[in-house]
Amino acid sequence: MAMYCVLHLILVATCVMYSEVKAGGTCLRLENKILDNLLDMIVAIKSGSPNSGGNSYRPAFTATLSTSPVTVSGQFIPKFDNGILNRGNGYDPKTGKFTAPKSGLYQFSFTIMSNGGSDLHMGVAKNGKYLISLYATKTHGDTGTANPVLELKEGDTVYLIHGASATQSMAGHHFSNMSGYYIGE
Fold it and tell me: Where in the sequence is the signal peptide annotated (predicted)?
C-alpha cells in the first residue's frame, strides 16, 4: 500500500513538473526536481515518517526536574517528574529511566544545574554501565551537558546517575532536564 502511495505521488509530481517545463523550464531542471523529490520520499519511507504510509513511529521524550533543590548522594537516579513529551511511553518519571520501545539509534540530551555552591557530578548510564560524565562547578547555576548518540536494543535503559560519595545539590525549577528521540535503524 505504501509503495502504491509513493508511486501515485511520483506520478502527480512528474505531471506538475512537466507542465512547468512545457511553460518554459529546462529538462535538466525537471530531472533535478524529480530526483530531489524521489530522495525526499525514500528518506521519509526509510525513517518511518507518518507521511510515508508506514506504521512506524519515532519514540521521543522530554522531561524536566520541577522540584528544587534535590539533594543527591551515592547511587542516586534523578526522577525528572515533569513530562513535556513522552511519545512511545519510553520514559518513566517514577524511575527516571528511558526504556527503548524499539531498537535503533537514539539522540539524547542531558542538562544538570548545580545548586547552592555545591559541585555536581552525574553520569549517563546504559543498562547500568556508566558511559559519559557531566559536571557542574560550585558556582550556583553552573550547568553540565552531554549529548550522546547511542545504539539501543528494544528494552535497553538509559538514565542519569549520581555516582559520587559526597552529598551534592541539583537545581530543579525545570533547569535540569533530559530528552531523547529515535533517529533510525
Answer: 1-23
